[in-house]
Amino acid sequence: MPAADRAGTEPDVGDVTVADVLAAQARLRRFLPPTPLHHAERFGTWLKLENLQRTGSYKVRGALNALLAGRERGDLRPIICASAGNHAQGVAWAAHRLGVQAITVMPHGAPANKIAGVAHWGATVRQHGESYDDAWAFAVELAQRHDYRFLSAFDDADVIAGQGTVGIELAPHSPDVVIVPIGGGGLASGVALALKSQGVRIVGAQVEGVDSMARAISGDIRPIAPVPSLADGVRVKIPGFLTRRLCASLLDDVVIVREAELRETLVRLALEENLIAEGAGALALAAGRRVAGRRKFAVVSGGNIDASVLAGLLTDVRPRAPRKPRRRRPETLRTPAVAVALPALKPASSPSHLHAALPAVEETSP
């Protein structure tokens, strides 16, 4: 079904609740250890490093939860999906881990490293069309013809619940705001479900000209033609129907980032924080400079960037020099119980699971 047809028809995509996210956490904990946190001091933001996740992206969470939940329901059909790369790799890894047959449909022009990642885990790769929507239509057709289980990259209750486990892992650290990149909306929906009841503000991040979710939330559900962007993982013409409803009701804001800001942020991540992220992976951090918060967390959603693209960015982009830092007071990364101040001269006394002292919150007058 073309994108234009999908815009006018809302299928029954089910529903998802906080209980589904908690059930996903119970399923996934034996397969996927929590990803680490890193304090990007020059940005004043904590980073949730999903670029260090299995397959290099948070997408494996939703894919694995969907396969495990399907197995519990007795659905053992082969899995087929459409993806620009990260969802396909997550499905391929999950299928390999559980012994399920998987077929992935990827558009022509998908990054070569992501295609190689899918093939590495034994999934069948079919390339079709020039965009995600072309690949989506072909994958749906194959699913109907051969009775495969079609697994959406974002508009699926099991997938959303799996992505929400990112929020479950952030909850013990008492964030006041979490920033997440948005393509189809699966990650934003899941994280918002996990954290909203705790009073955490959830802010989405999109790129200028690739902002279908922001438009849909405001009532404009017409398909857009996403402009070329470094953030290829979030180039979606129409967000999900289920994710749109969840984002409209749960998100506090959506920040639109300029392409130049995204490019500079990705280079700064590499040069200042020694972290490799793909375009969509740097998107939440790029939006963070416009988001106020004493304990800001940004999700670095993936690290599968093509080597030639990264080399070009490092050659061409010259980040601005950071401002001189203000005087700061130390604070710790909070545990589920209570914040523990780490002695300034005894870093070894901190608990082993706290890998870094939170440097710093700017001092303000009451």
Question: Can you put this structure into words, describing what you see?
Answer:
With 366 residues, the protein is of the alpha/beta class. The protein is 37% helix and 15% strand. It is built from 14 helices and twelve strands. The protein has helices at residues 3-8, 18-28, 59-72, 86-98, 112-120, 132-146, 157-163, 165-170, 186-195, 212-217, 241-250, 259-272, 283-288, 307-316, and strands at residues 37-40, 45-49, 79-82, 102-106, 124-127, 149-150, 177-181, 201-207, 253-257, 296-300, 328-331, 358-362. Strands 1-2-10-7-8-9 form a six-stranded mixed β-sheet. A four-stranded parallel β-sheet has the order 5-4-3-6, sandwiched between helices. It is globular. The protein starts with a helix and ends with a strand. The model is unreliable at 1-13 and 338-366 (pLDDT under 50).
